[in-house]
């Protein structure tokens, strides 16, 4: 972690985050060193350890059951009876298993539920992170080389055996687990870091390298992986590229479409796409690799990537504000962009409801004493501590002086910095703490971004489904937060229990609302299974047709991650 | 132009660029206000106005004749007799002209050399910027709407009439002009800026908008177009996207693959690809638009783009150094990256030969008194003048104190800043000033980047073709310069006259050398006609096959920019 420097309070009302501002319970309970970035492991243990109140009365699907053991998750096939297994696909046989075993050459590399009973071992590969989707695959393959991947894909393509590529299985749209009996091809054994050039900042690594490991590797040389997200301890860089993950650093370092310089991938027919370029510039033909970035495993398996890492900033500062209106949030954002300019590395927005829910779920004391309708978290990262502090102080003086922000604190040390971040990063966990949550990850033009949350709230007030205190109402609260800097809103409807009426009030209303503003129904999480049938809200008929055409070009038999995407 | 702030000399040897450091003759001769960024217009006038010495003895092709009038340029078809006109293509008739005239609805929108004599009017559209390639098209179409483009393409596709998309015609690889009688579809009348959002920095504009106009437009709102290059007064943003142009800001703002958020394009069958997304994040399917970025007009016509513009920096500083070795250049680059970090906006390298040639061609006095084997130009751009000056001074003290750089100057005002930039940007012009030039735009891993120039020089010394003073030798000098920050070398062989022996000494040797280092034979200029037959030096057989497959998907009749690209 970069050292954090002290910034003197800019104006009278601005305080340094102090010791009375506590770390939330669920963060403290993790065994690992305190971190706001919960790993899959940590979060999983926690949800298993702390059964929550309701959700037992759930009797319809799909379901998000963070507090249920895997065996209680409904099969996706049952939850979505309208999806049928593609009858062209062959059922897997002992002969197929023999072929795979021969290719993989090691017993560790295959979980065989066809010729043996492997139910328990398979479960973790069949169930997704949200405990919302559950497949019925009987074979997990874990190749450790591109050649193995190529042989497996070619065989599956020739034999019409469907494949579900799987990285860290932290995806949030049901793309990482099978629907029926698709073979899981898991990349976890392909986890070598091949090279890092500490002049150019270019990293070459296997797709199965854990994001945290990649970031740690380059951190030693003073660089930073250009992507960061809550699942970094479990997700893989190949999975990140396959989902075109956005995360916390996009505002500063841009998207993976710009940062990924090359990749190696395998097409269904076994062709190895050898485009592992380690150059910043290479204008020699169509930039094919881009189709794999955000392709969600539907045209091939990414086996290696080459990526440009920016320099790590020695000075990192975090401030947390309360604001009186969404207009003020927008003004604060404009001011931050203009005054903090090249050192601004995050601008996150959380509404009052999201912070109250976070407090309610965790017992954590919030950084500010008063309560405000809106909060912002601002992070700066730069090369010179004094310069950054001065810029931040000037900015703080301005926004406090002009009453753009009502109150604020700045982190004085690393642990305060983590705690401020926890107020933002803990919201997602908090929103499903009381039973379940309907999650929408949306891009909306900035001026209208928050209006959706307000209208959604009004909707639930009007239809009588929401009450923060009344336990009989399904909806606890409607909260809005997200990557303001990227116009990316997370609309979360925190529920006490899943209820068809809630879902019906939300869908397709939310998608229609977003489509009317030319927003995106999936800013960063992707389509997967969850949004396959809603893509037309963000893409024209022509675009969908062209996408299907491309899918047909690379995967004519449709074996790659079927039932999902477009 | 942003104001430039004064930086006090850091150490004794570091001087402020002073008035004895003059602007070069060919820059002063331009009619427009002094600028290092020569426009097409300015350069064209100049080359016409100043006939140079040799190049008249040229009797082989291809030729680069900066000082000859258009009519003296050989037809590409004659220069490359191995390229044959595709006999499937129909010859254009009066009936076709009638169709185009009806679609376009205006006489200004068509140059008709089929039913009339339009030789002179057509010439500018048939000849490229380098005066190296010359086509024989008889019709230029200038649609002013996407609908018109769609109707034209569909008609041409149905009737097998080939099309050459053309933007500002500043491309350097012969892609922008026809080889035979391809119809030129010129975008210059589609030049409306549709919107600019000054909170998000997102610009939406027609493909035919001139880069300079786009930059000026966003500059008024405090933003900067994320691309800058010498041809900005003539090239179009659609052409920039079609070539995935790199230029001077890539080091800081990244490539167009990251910055272009959406586009509208027309496929040969008339389909309008409506992907003009104005969101920073939109993970809803394959990112098809990426295929048009760098597609060089071979799968469709880009009609509109949506692009993310960064904030303009109020503080801009430029320093110019002399260094004793390429090792020191690399060290200086590492130091600049680490110390100037987020404010570093350019790191350009020029070898001693390139600066001497620049001096010889222009008579311009160079910024430093002594002469050095290497020079660097460093630019910083930031939001705070004092902070930037301090960072730059600390950096300068360090690199001078450690004797990483031997001598240096910093610009004290806007005109000095322009003059320092001229020492870098004037090299390209200077290198063809004495007759002609063989130009290579290459990506090479940094440690080996300069070795190519040395080996090339040795080659010409050994084969007796080079002498800086002896007028009988074809080669004057071998120079190396380029975007060091992007590992992008421009290897230029300055000649007194074109000579087959020189070309044979260079090709395929240069390409082989680059391929052995896994570099790129085209860093930023693209393939066009010039490098079509060399793509295998940078791309595997598999990649070339996959690219051809894609071309077949979108342009099955091959009417889009034939004879070029892959
Ligand atoms: C706590 C938490 C926080 C998150 N925060 C963010 C965030 O801030 N921003 C954001 O964008 N996302 C976020 N996500 C979701 C994000 O998509 C994933 O965390 C991550 O990018 C997926 O990586 P993975 O290795 O887990 O992939 P998986 O979940 O295993 O797979 C995701 C998809 O990619 C495919 N895939 C995986 N690996 C490959 C491969 N090698 N080749 C081809 N296809 C492959 C799968 O088939 C699937 O369709 C978060 C998730 C969690 C659990
Ligand atoms: C002085 C000078 C300096 C330069 N500096 C740089 C530099 O620093 N970095 C760099 O990368 N390049 C540089 N270039 C080359 C660069 O490629 C072009 O200047 C520019 O990007 C091309 O734009 P244009 O509008 O002139 O396109 P054109 O030259 O007209 O066309 C270029 C290619 O794109 C296609 N095309 C053009 N418009 C469209 C469209 N709307 N739809 C589909 N296809 C289209 C054409 O068919 C052609 O294949 C320089 C050129 C000059 C003359």
Automatic annotation (TrEMBL), chains A, B:
Keywords for the protein's UniProt record, in alphabetical order: FAD, Flavoprotein, Metal-binding, Mitochondrion, Oxidoreductase, Transit peptide, Zinc
GO biological process terms on file: malate metabolic process
Name this polypeptide is given: D-2-hydroxyglutarate dehydrogenase, mitochondrial
Coarse class of the protein's main subcellular location: mitochondrion
Record function comment: Catalyzes the oxidation of D-2-hydroxyglutarate (D-2-HG) to alpha-ketoglutarate. Also catalyzes the oxidation of other D-2-hydroxyacids, such as D-malate (D-MAL) and D-lactate (D-LAC). Exhibits high activities towards D-2-HG and D-MAL but a very weak activity towards D-LAC.
Region (Disordered): 50-72
A Pfam family of this chain: FAD-oxidase_C
Example GO molecular function: D-lactate dehydrogenase (cytochrome) activity
Highest taxon, organism lineage: Eukaryota
Bias (Low complexity) ranges: 60-72
FAD-binding PCMH-type domain span: 133-312
Co-factor requirement: FAD
This protein's GO CC annotations: mitochondrion
Organism: Hortaea werneckii EXF-2000
Subcellular location: Mitochondrion
Reactions that this protein is recorded to catalyse: (R)-malate + A = oxaloacetate + AH2; (R)-lactate + 2 Fe(III)-[cytochrome c] = 2 Fe(II)-[cytochrome c] + pyruvate + 2 H(+)
Family: Belongs to the FAD-binding oxidoreductase/transferase type 4 family.
Top EC class for this record: oxidoreductase
Enzyme Commission number: 1.1.99.39
Record InterPro entries: FAD-bd_oxidored_4_C (IPR004113), FAD-bd_PCMH (IPR016166), FAD-bd_PCMH-like_sf (IPR036318), FAD-bd_PCMH_sub1 (IPR016167), FAD-bd_PCMH_sub2 (IPR016169), FAD-linked_Oxase-like_C (IPR016164), FAD-oxidored/transferase_4 (IPR051264), Oxid_FAD_bind_N (IPR006094)
